[in-house]
Design goal:
- The protein has 2 domains: 62 residues, Helicase, Ruva Protein, domain 3, CATH 1.10.8; 192 residues, CRAL-TRIO lipid binding domain (Phosphatidylinositol Transfer Protein Sec14p, 3-Layer(aba) Sandwich), CATH 3.40.525.
- Helix 1 crosses helix 3 and helix 8 packs across helix 12.
- The two termini are 38 Å apart.
- It is an alpha/beta fold.
- 45% of the residues lie in helices and 8% in strands.
- The protein has 12 helices and 5 strands.
């Protein structure tokens, strides 16, 4: 990092030191003792503009206070059957770690249906995973590795991606906007695997809309991506959908399916949230109810991407072979 960047960090910290309570308190849950790394993340997200980064972070802290994000890890999704429904339709999990110690998040983009619960449960679930990652998982692996580990890698499985994805764009935009504004630069690299032609067609029109910083993070791998991913992680850390050459990502044996509610990661997360609820003096939540979070206005980049994808998908509505893997057909140049 150059002198200018170091000065930006110092200036940014000086501004943040002046924020009032309760913003200062919630900021501790954001940085978890890794203050410098957190300031750098927000500076990167605003191209090292100190004023813009300061505005972004303060708005993030206000969002946390207004929506009681600090207590979301004591708000279980109940009953357990509903939690299972959410996990079965919002496919995400941790398959292991890279050789550098970064958690590997596996996401079943193509087979996630988001159709078994209200939007608020999916948003609640997503934020809980973010908070568990940042407040429990990353501090733990940082301590284990003896150095700050504040980011993760994500492997996006596009198996099953179809035109029906059009109905999910609004929810995905809400979730990605929450991440953009409140959890910036938490993903080191995105690996896209099992990409059908429909993804390649959409990626071609979306890629130019992304900032260069984001474009460089996205790597579209051939097939299931196993050979490339084995360069950065051991076989045991590969997501289950990367361990075989065939398609199909969610319906696999529970022993290796990192999306399953019975996977150790989801069991640990569920038990952690349940325990923190019970320490408040109640054995079980009194009734079913989601944790409502205010949805931020989507950033302009996300709105434009959503509209572009929608337009592209509508053009393909009469095509019959868009779900085939890229390897099975020739993509237009």
């Amino acid at each position: 990092m150059g002198i200018v960047s170091e000065q930006a960090i110092d200036d940014f910290q000086e501004l943040i030191d002046k924020v009032e309570e309760p913003l200062k308190t919630t900021f501790k849950n954001v940085h978890q003792g890794y203050l410098r790394e957190t300031l750098i993340r927000f500076l990167k997200a605003r191209d090292w503009n100190v004023i813009k980064a300061h505005t972004m972070l303060v708005e993030c802290l206000r969002w946390r206070v207004d929506n009681q994000i600090d207590s979301i890890l004591s708000k279980p999704i109940v009953p357990s059957e509903l939690y299972r429904d959410v996990r079965d339709s919002q496919l995400i999990g941790i398959s292991g770690y890279t050789r550098e110690g970064l958690p590997v998040f596996a996401i079943g983009v193509g087979l996630s249906t988001f159709d078994k619960a209200s939007v608020h449960y999916y948003v609640q679930s997503h934020i809980q995973i973010n908070e568990y990652r940042d407040r429990v998982l990353l501090p733990s692996v940082s301590k284990k590795n003896g150095r700050p580990i504040t980011t993760c890698v994500k492997v996006l499985d596009m198996t099953g991606l179809k035109l029906s994805a059009l109905s999910q764009i609004k929810l995905v935009t809400i979730i990605s906007t929450i991440d953009d504004l409140n959890y910036p630069e938490k993903t080191n690299t995105y690996y896209v695997v099992n990409a059908p032609y429909i993804f390649s067609a959409c990626w071609k029109v979306v890629k130019p809309l992304l900032q260069e910083r984001t474009r460089k993070k996205v790597h579209v791998l051939s097939g299931c991506g196993k050979d490339e991913l084995l360069k950065i992680m051991d076989y045991t850390s590969l997501p289950h959908f990367c361990r075989r050459g065939s398609s199909g990502s969610s319906h696999h044996t529970q022993s290796v399916d990192c999306f399953s509610v019975d996977h150790p990661f989801h069991q640990q997360l569920y038990n952690y949230v349940k325990h923190h609820y019970e320490t408040q003096g109640q054995a079980e939540p009194a009734k079913q109810g989601s944790f409502h979070v205010g949805f931020p206005e989507p950033v302009a980049e996300r709105v434009e991407m959503a509209k572009t994808i929608e337009s592209k998908l509508h053009k393909f509505e009469n095509c019959n072979d868009l779900s085939k893997p890229v390897d099975d057909r020739k993509a237009s140049p």
